[in-house]
Amino acid sequence: MTREAIFERISELIKVQMHREDLEITPETSLQDDLGADSIELMEFVISVEDEFGIEITDQAIDHMKNMGDMLDYVVQRVN
């Protein structure tokens, strides 16, 4: 799966999670600052990503993710 395809799928998951199909997601997008996701929404999103890609995202890894680019890097490393 290409990096671009993974990013597109993650972006779609966020849009569905946030009930906002109009969101413009970039690698610099911060889930908490730009999207206003609370801790429950963030955890639901992480679970969706784990289920979609068949990976586990540790709490430590989540703590180090500042933006969508960090999430993308993590997923790409585990999927490919």
UniProtKB/TrEMBL annotation:
<comment type="similarity">
    <text>Belongs to the acyl carrier protein (ACP) family.</text>
</comment>
<dbReference type="InterPro" id="IPR009081">
    <property type="entry name" value="PP-bd_ACP"/>
</dbReference>
<keyword id="KW-0443">Lipid metabolism</keyword>
<keyword id="KW-0963">Cytoplasm</keyword>
<keyword id="KW-0444">Lipid biosynthesis</keyword>
<keyword id="KW-0596">Phosphopantetheine</keyword>
<dbReference type="Pfam" id="PF00550">
    <property type="entry name" value="PP-binding"/>
</dbReference>
<keyword id="KW-0275">Fatty acid biosynthesis</keyword>
<dbReference type="InterPro" id="IPR003231">
    <property type="entry name" value="ACP"/>
</dbReference>
<comment type="function">
    <text>Carrier of the growing fatty acid chain in fatty acid biosynthesis.</text>
</comment>
<keyword id="KW-0276">Fatty acid metabolism</keyword>
<feature type="modified residue" description="O-(pantetheine 4'-phosphoryl)serine">
    <location>
        <position position="39"/>
    </location>
</feature>
<keyword id="KW-0597">Phosphoprotein</keyword>
<dbReference type="InterPro" id="IPR036736">
    <property type="entry name" value="ACP-like_sf"/>
</dbReference>
<feature type="domain" description="Carrier">
    <location>
        <begin position="4"/>
        <end position="79"/>
    </location>
</feature>
<comment type="pathway">
    <text>Lipid metabolism; fatty acid biosynthesis.</text>
</comment>
<protein>
    <recommendedName>
        <fullName>Acyl carrier protein</fullName>
    </recommendedName>
</protein>
